[in-house]
Amino acid sequence: IAKIQRNYKESIILRSSAIDEDGKIISNAGKYDSLIVKKKEFNELQKKIEFILKKLKNNLDEIIIQKLIEKPEISGVVFTKDKNTDSHYYDINFDVSKKTDLVTSGKYNPSIKSLIIFKNSKKIPKKFGKLIKIIKTLETKFLNDRLDVEFCIKKNKVYILQCRPLLGKRKKINQSKINEIILNQEKKFDKIIAPTKNLFGSTTILSNMSDWNPAEMIGVKPLKLASSLYSTLITNDVWALQRANYGYRNVSPNVLMLDMSGNTYIDIRTDLNSFLPNDLQPDICKKIINDSIKKLKQKPNLHDKLEFNIIDTCYNLNINKKKYKFLTKNEKNEFIKKLRNLTNKIIDENFLQKDLNKINLLKKKIDELKKSKLSHIHKIYYLLDDCKKFGTLAFAGIARCAFISKSIFDSLLEEKIVQSKTIHDFYISLETISKDINNEYIKSLKKKNFKNFFIKYGHLRPSTYSISVKNYKENLKNYFSNNLRNLSMKKSHKFLINKNELKLINRHLKKHKLSFKFHDFIRFSRNAIEGRETAKLIFSKSIDEIFKNLKILAKEINLNYKDFEHLDINLILKSFSSLEQEKLKKLLIQNISKNKKSYNFSKNLKMPDVIMNKYDFSYFYENIKKGNYITEKKISGDIIFYNKNTKLKELNDKIVLIENADPGFDFLFSYNLKGLITKYGGANSHMAIRCMELDLPSITGVGNGTYNMLSKSKKIYIDCLNKKLEIIH
Fold first, then answer.
1. Ranges assigned E (strand) in 96-136
2. CA 459 – CA 470 distance, rounded (Å)
3. In degrees, to the nearest 5, what angle opens at C-alpha 158 toward C-alphas 152 and 160?
4. Would you state the pLDDT for residue 101?
5. CA 343, CA 341: separation in Å to the nearest integer?
6. How many CB atoms lie within 10 A of CB 174?
7. What is the predicted pLDDT for the residue at 146?
8. Helix or strand or coil: residue 357?
9. CA dihedral defined by 68, 70, 74, 79, rounded to 10 degrees?
10. Burial track 182-209 (b if 16+ CB lie within 10 A, e otherwise)
11. Of the candidates 692, 659, 696, 694, the residue with the CA atom closest to the CA atom of residue 675
12. From 122, 339, 393, 501, which residue has the greatest number of CB atoms within 10 Å?
């Protein structure tokens, strides 16, 4: 104590350094303590040292005394390898809150960010240059390239606060191959962003969460069957055909979704062009696309909100208030006029009903194919063709109508033409598929007869495009609660509107030269929103039938159907007319082997959600607001919200949901958890470290919105590798 008082003229931090702490196999994260001692409290030193000593059991255990770095500009943690794949990336979790403990705590931290840097990258953000140089020295010094290093930066000086082994599996990964892929991606991207003859816009951006959202639908690193099905059914040509049919610009033959070394992205320029009215003047089109891409470059976080914040794709009642500074007054009026004409046409000419009819026709065609005696390959061919013509094409149109409905509803509310209660009452009056699934399941559970439930919903699965994920019929017990006490029937309410409010709305619709009245609009909106769910329900039946036929084919030629996850569906389509079974088997094995190899290596590549320039392949800031996924596993099961009243025996084989990710919850790991989800906490929080060492599937820091939805859920599905989280029930 005398030595501390003699050597430190400022506040200090006392850190435990126990023999069994931060080992190569077990971290014992959170077991020991670190305490701050302010200079003015040095008379408290003995008490605080004794507090730490109580947990230290080995004579070789120590206490480290460090100068307390107060209010650093940056503080955080560096992982010197990817925590899940052991790939060659630095992962820097940091914040600028001037607090040194928020990144490693499980507390709410709105300022946390993550920077990913490929280890061979020649470009590193300037403010982290010194840090990376020091990290490389530590890797050499400890003969260990898998480290977990706490740091802070103050006045351009880097302080290393702690260095320990990063737990997890070591793998041999070809770093030079990653380097080669990154160089090829940079060259490919340079070609993609160049001007192209039949699209407006001088450049483009790639996003994995924009229109048709591949990250959500098939995952950030989809398997080949999923990505080839998705592109065949939607993003190759169907999406563009639907928009052209509705009066938007025809952008064929451009495809919407691009594959970048196993990661799927939406080409934003192609997407934006497809939202332009087909009779809009070229000069106006060019200005709109260039301005939209400019806006997105300034605010890339809006990449999943293109139609709400970047480009207008239909008429609504506050569109005239938008400034459109990049257009002249006449150009602005012309653009708004074309959007109004387009919106009126879509609603007046009943495009919606035509698409709803197509969905009903698809239902009949699926039943006919099921009864037919065609070969499995023939059935797959026709199922895909029918699904495109009558399923996904119709679904795309119905979804467009549903978006137009929401846009007009939102503008009515923003302009204070309707009350929020009116819109709320409309939405709770809808007869949706999700309500019916709930109610049909409860009826079936009471009768102990699920025949009707399986006929209507047995084909659904948490990951629509994954053949290895079981559908509801195959895995009912794991997807739905068996306890009637936890379930309640969901009712729809009748929608009524005040006559005076109705008159006001109709007056405004007429003023804006919209050709429909509010009752017509309500009917349109109801059909669109309810129809969107019905359309997805029906076309997903086609996909389930495709999977059934693929499974039969796999059995006939003695292959494991789960390997078909790596099959390119186009190979089946090409074999529609000519190949013998034995030859087909050989081709399938070759195709699966090649795609499996590519997929397994693609897991080692880290890619951003948005790519704006070629250097984004070497380093990028990662969006961690959606949570930090740990392990590469897929799980589904019951979710249990833990609080002080929870019976601990109920935790076994459950996915546990907790708010804070602090050491006080370590007792949870004494139970056989299926997974763990926390509201707060970063990639280096205590709970994240513990889940890494236990190889427990988990998501730390999902945030308030997702946490609240999960707390009301009963069954969920998690795909950690693809960063997918789905609520089943």
1. 113-118
2. 9
3. 65
4. 60
5. 6
6. 12
7. 93
8. helix
9. 20
10. beebeeebeebbeebeebbbebbbbbbb
11. 696
12. 393
pLDDT digits (tens, 9 = 90+) for 450-463: 999 999 999 999 88
SS (H, E, C) 476-487: HHHHCCCCHHHC
Largest CA distance in the chain: 91
Ordered DSSP codes for 13-61: EEEEE-TTSS-SS---TTSS-EEEE-GGGGGGHHHHHHHHHTT--STT-
Low-confidence ranges of the chain (pLDDT < 50): none
Give phi and psi for 432, each to the nearest 5.
-100, 160
Radius of gyration for the chain, computed over Cα atoms and rounded to the nearest angstrom? 29
Residue 149 in tokens: 């290093």
Residues 6+ apart with CB under 8 A from 567: 224, 225, 228, 550, 588, 591, 592, 595
pTM of the model: 0.86
Cα separations in angstroms, 721 against 224, 512, 725: 15, 48, 11
**Tokens 């009707």 sit on residue:** 452
User: Which residues are part of the catalytic machinery?
Assistant: 686
And the tokens for 567? 């099959």
CA dihedral 321, 323, 328, 331 (to 10 degrees): -50
For the record, the structure tokens of 716 come out as 């969920």
What is the spatial distance between Cα 649 and Cα 658, in angstroms, rounded to a whole number?
16
Place of tokens 């076994």: 652
pLDDT digits 0-9 by tens, 459-488: 999 889 999 989 999 988 878 878 777 778
Which residues are bridge partners to 338 per DSSP? none
